[in-house]
Design a protein that fits this description.
alpha/beta; 15 helices; 15 strands; 44% helix
Length: 417
């Protein structure tokens, strides 16, 4: 089976692009927007509409495979590729990528994915968002050509064990971190609530008091609303380096503060993502390692999750080998081609690192559903409910795709046994 033709269409994502640097510097929120001037290159305002590009592959037999190019909410921050705009990249795709796709034989997803992931145009690799969406479309195209599910293609080409088991789902609340927590508890999400602690004065507190209060409320809210004691979700909070800012990145002070959060979590497992942001990869690894060492020496069970400066497969290997954290976020759009996501989950699990297959609120329904197949195939330790920040929408996209896929896999297993 070959690719007969290729189309590209501009789309919108499930959330927005935010200038993280401007927000960290104290940009004030006014309703849904931020007041002030952007700091990161290519941003026209601090918050602007997220954009995507759909890659549409027309196969010889008339079937259609789709993948969505999308970038993270905080594009251009933490060593990531720049802002991804459809008006900039559709002409690029038409000129440079379409001729390479037409008449391609759909014999191996991995071969095709690696070809485009390593491709350079004028000495530069393709934007991570392009590699992300293009590889999704190629996986779907190969699955259609071979009459299999996408998870089955990953199983086959990686020679993975066929484990038919759900992956825990992590809900993200956005700024509505109270109402959305109630929704998460009612729907029994496995991990909650993300909470979006990206501002010191409004969300963390100059002494960390606002986050302390929030975690205390969170633990009591879970116990109040749950139907029975068997529901014990993990607490996972993303703080975007703000804890480091209020303690001058002193690892001992940061660790002491994190230990205090564990007590407030009242028996629930607690993960803190991105406690510091040191501005570059090596300092980030070194600082996280120091914090983790202090936590262990204090007997604390708080787990550190790496995010910033841990963007590529190679970065994930470095963070894992350094044992500087307990979990890494495999931020799916940042890895380019989706085969790097699978490689990352496999490497983490083989080396004692918890693998959180994340992503962003700023991707699409197509990319989220594709990610479900990757997580199921490699058995990530958790995956993000996405896209969007309203919780319900992203959760049902991921949850329902997972349950549908598991049902089909179980049916096929029963037929073949």
């Amino acid at each position: 089976m070959k690719i007969k033709d290729v189309l590209f269409s501009a789309g919108k994502t499930g959330f927005f692009f935010d200038d993280q640097a401007a927000i960290k510097k104290g940009a004030r929120q006014d309703g849904f927007i931020y007041i002030g001037q952007p700091v990161t290159e290519h941003f026209e305002r601090i918050r602007q509409a997220g954009e995507s590009i759909s890659v549409i592959l027309i196969l010889e037999n008339g079937q259609i495979a789709v993948g969505d190019c999308a970038a993270v909410q905080y594009s251009g921050a933490g060593g990531r590729d720049p802002l991804f705009l459809a008006s900039t990249y559709i002409p690029f795709l038409e000129k440079n990528i379409k001729p390479l796709l037409v008449n391609k034989e759909l014999d191996s997803f991995l071969n095709l994915a690696k070809f485009f992931d390593n491709l350079e145009i004028e000495g530069k690799k393709l934007h991570t968002a392009i590699r992300y969406g293009l590889s999704q479309a190629l996986l779907e195209a190969v699955a259609l050509a071979k009459n299999k599910l996408k998870v089955e293609i990953i199983w086959d080409e990686y020679n993975l064990e066929h484990i038919i088991k759900p992956v825990p789902i992590f809900g993200q609340s956005g700024d509505d971190r109270y109402i959305n927590v109630d929704k998460m508890i009612i729907k029994k999400v496995d991990v909650l609530p993300h909470a979006l602690i990206n501002n010191i004065d409004q969300k963390l507190g100059r002494k960390g008091e606002l986050l302390r209060d929030y975690i205390g409320w969170l633990a009591s809210r879970i116990k109040k609303l749950r139907v029975d004691d068997s529901y014990n979700p993990a607490i996972h909070i993303d703080v975007y380096g703000t804890i480091g800012l209020i303690f001058d990145n002193d690892p001992k002070k940061v660790a002491t503060y994190l230990s205090s959060l564990e007590k407030l979590a009242d028996g629930f497992d607690i993960y803190i993502e991105g406690p510091v942001d040191m501005g570059a990869k090596l300092p980030q690894i070194e600082e996280l390692a120091k914090i983790r060492k202090f936590l262990k020496s204090n007997g604390s069970h708080v787990k550190i999750v790496a995010d910033e400066w841990c963007n590529t497969y190679e970065d994930i290997v470095e963070f894992t080998d350094a044992s500087c954290c307990d979990m890494v976020q495999i931020k799916t759009p940042d890895l380019g081609s989706i085969h790097n996501i699978v490689d990352s989950v496999i490497y983490c699990k083989k080396n004692g690192m918890e693998a959180y297959q994340g992503g962003t609120c700023n991707e699409t329904d197509f990319s989220a559903r594709c990610c479900v197949h990757l997580a199921l195939a490699a058995q990530a330790d958790r995956m993000l409910a996405k896209p969007g920040m309203g919780f319900d929408e992203g959760f049902q996209i991921v949850k329902n795709e997972m349950e549908r896929t598991l049902s089909v896999l179980k049916y096929k297993d029963e037929i073949n046994s």
